[in-house]
Amino acid sequence: MPDSRNNPMDAASTDVVRRAMEISTQAAMLGFDWAEPRDVLDKLGEELDEVRCALDQKAREDVTEEIGDLFFALVNFCRKMQIDPGRAFERGVQKFERRFRSLSVLIAGRGGEVSAQVLDDLWQQVKKGERHEQ
Q1: How does DSSP assign 38-102, residue by residue?
Q2: 118: alpha, beta or left, given left = phi > 0 and alpha = psi -120 to 50?
Q3: Contact (CB, 8 A) for 93 and 81
Q4: With contact defined as beta carbons under 8 Å apart, do 75 and 24 qualify?
């Protein structure tokens, strides 16, 4: 497995999140901001709709641009909630990794190949099992 410390994408990704936080903070200081965090959720929904529209039009460059807008709105939500977006993302990745390892064990126990429906059922089982452990 590659050493993530030597992956230039990690540094670039961290830098762009930092830049997004900085510029959105500057905008907020000028009053260009949402009143409440819930208002940003509405913006996230709007941006997600724009991603769907670009996807329906099979416009890859537009999808890329709209995903960028979606990420930026998500960073703004984190800022409004005083949540470090990098930490939140890392926790989400760690949760997926943990669940995926559990899923892989269950798949191996079934011989290694399962249908999409069985995969979904097993995924839900893994998630449910995690909730009961907490």
Answers
A1: HHHHHHHHHHHHHHHHHHHTT-HHHHHHHHHHHHHHHHHHHHHHT--HHHHHHHHHHHHHHHHHH
A2: alpha
A3: no
A4: yes
Compute the distance between CA of residue 19 and CA of residue 36 in angstroms, rounded to an integer: 22
Q: Which of 64, 83, 102 corresponds to the end of one domain? A: 83
| pLDDT score, position 3 | 47
- 85-108, pLDDT tens digit by residue? 999 999 999 999 999 999 999 999
Amino acid letter for position 39: D
Question: Where a domain ends, among 83, 105, 122?
Answer: 83
131/103 same-domain check: yes
| Cβ partners under 8 Å of residue 84, min gap 6 | 78
> pLDDT by residue (tens digit) across 1-22?
344 445 555 666 778 999 999 9
